[in-house]
Amino acid sequence: MMSSEDGSAESLLAQAEIDMILGTQSDSGAPEPAAPPLNRLIHGNAVRYERLPMAEIVFERLARILGGSLRNLFQDNVDVRLAALASQRLTESIAGVSAPGSGQASLLAVFRALEWDNLGILVIDYDTIYNLTEILLGGRSVPAGQPHAPRPLTSIERNLTERLIRIVLQDLTVSFAPICAVTFELERTETDPRFAAVGRNSGAALTARIGMTTASRQGSVGIILPYATIEPVRELLLQQFMGEKFGRDSIWEAHLAEELWHTDIELEAVLDQQTMKLSALMALKEGDIMPLGTPKGAPIALRCGEISLFDAQLGVRNGRIAAAIDRKVTPVHQRG
After folding, report:
1. Annotation: CATH topology of 53-245
2. pLDDT band (50, 70, 90) for residue 23
3. How crowded is residue 90: how many other Cβ atoms within 10 Å of its Cβ?
4. Which of 91, 106, 277, 294 is 20 to 30 A from 149, comparing alpha carbons?
């Protein structure tokens, strides 16, 4: 009994060994200065998701299209680029899409993807709003000064910003068009992130930041698409190259369909079927005669391989056995 108890005690891990496995203590017994691996796993902000190659193409296309739209809006040259694209937790996304050093986000535009029946967020920071207002209201084309202190937006600033938001959503709709048909519509704007929730805080989101530079001024627009929102097109966004993005190859499809018409197939006429003993079958030899019990006018089947194509009647024409087709056989999977 004593040896059994000693073996059980040795099989249990001591607290020091447990701490070492979890990373809360070093081999020497001293506490580790870095965060324990278990805590880093629980509280870490990084989200590891599979790469979405088509998403990069969509947002690069958005940057090109948006550049033309903003040139028409500002009546000036605008440099638009994709500044960042990453997967983050939803709680980190709003802060992540703001331009570095621009302060906290000011206006959060909640929009809906109609065909996907889910939501996303556009994030516009304070400096972008103020620079946008100055440009559209005829401000001087000089470098902006110190970052503006956050304050409540005026109705004019909000209306001008919503104009920019609608342009971005229209261009985002066009950017997704080669992959799928989806329409993005503005639902509401908020200034408090708590009222702009579009999913669980622990959920992952695809986060993009579009940088804009015009008239010596800079700004950015953040786009947040939760993974739950883009789930209907996830397989399309996982495609690796442009050929997959546009679906089937119409040229190859037309060529294949044309060549199929020239394919040679064998059509068999089943004149009779008989049931016989195995011994009689094994006794058949070259020169034996097997009478067919199918008279003239009897129904027969025309088939290709194991698939029946036509019902016909047996007959004779010009001294040769012939088949008069009665009807086409509909496959079982095509019957209503």
Report:
1. Chemotaxis protein chec (3.40.1550)
2. low
3. 23
4. 91
